[in-house]
Amino acid sequence: MSRPTARVLTLLELLQSGGIRTVTELADRLGVDERTVRRYANHLLDLDVPVESVRGRHGGYRLAPGYRMPPLMLSDDEALAVLLGLLAGRRAGLSTATSTASETAAAKIRRVLPERLRLTLDAVLGSLAFTTPPGETVPPDSAVLLPIADAVNHHRPISMRYTAAGGRRSERTLHPYGLVAHSGRWYVTGADLASGQDRTFRLDRITGVRTLPGSFEPPAGLDPAERVLTGLATAPYRHEVTLRIQGTAEHIHTRLPAGVAIVEELTCPDGADPQTERWFRVELRVDRLDWLPAVLASLDRPFVIERPDELRGLVEALAERLTNSARRTPPHP
């Protein structure tokens, strides 16, 4: 590669780091005079790279938004970060309905990498293992995701068609508060004007999104992620379980995450040590109870079952099986 061409690419890399770069700074970094910097900027413009000239005392050059993405100059660390991000995004369900988009993006990056760097990154990706298998992901349609995101950002109401779990279809008008990705699914939470209540909707069940005139003011101190987790934890199920567990909220959530259980600290009794005798009320709704005894045992903390009584029998049965197993002795050879 000739030196002028290499310097033009170096100029592009400098501009891609963001902000306004003065002509003097660029000339110093490239080892050329200021007139040559202007010539190199014109070369980028000829290649349809949106270089913008900024006048004034602190003026210089910067990259402006263009109709297409200019060539990217990535360092080794940046290339690894992008590829790992694409891989993690696919596994976490953070991809759009165009399921191949992350794969084609990764392929394009790998194709233009120097062989040395490509082989190194392939070694990293090939040796990388995850502690949990990829779960079921339901990617949202970009025609749904993008207008909702814009409405969230600008506090605009939206109209949408929604299909509930049972197949019932409805037209909704929503004041969207935020988008939340959780366990491979995307949700929007907001005020449903028809019911007058805060609701959470799955994006893969939404079609026909339209932005409506007007605006709204979201509630103060809003936490969309907490609203979605609370909504999931309080969804109707077959069994309603209430427990009291001694320990910390962080430890309880290691076995009963926020999307499954609501954990609320109880008032510490008079004379009790708040550091060692903290109790929490834990509420959850589940379709089956058979998995809960093992979870409670794994917490290794004192607990009290408030409801349902059926859970007491399951815990006692597990305790009896464990006791019987502990008393067994190995057969003599």
Molecular structure report:
The model has no long low-confidence stretch (mean pLDDT about 85). This protein has eleven helices and eleven strands. The strands form three sheets. It has a five-stranded antiparallel beta sheet with strand order 6-5-4-3-7. A four-stranded antiparallel beta sheet has the order 9-10-8-11, with helices on one face. Strands 1-2 form a two-stranded antiparallel ribbon. The chain is α+β, with helices and mostly antiparallel strands.
Return the structural class: alpha+beta
What is the C-alpha radius of gyration, as a whole number of Å?
Answer: 28 Å
Largest sheet: 5 strands, antiparallel
Provide the spatial order of strands within the biggest beta sheet: 6-5-4-3-7
Quaternary: single chain
Total helices: the number is 11
Distance between the termini: 76 Å
Helix content: 40-55%
Shape label: extended
Beta-strand share of residues = 15-25%
| Nearest-integer average pLDDT | 83
Q: How many strand segments?
A: 11
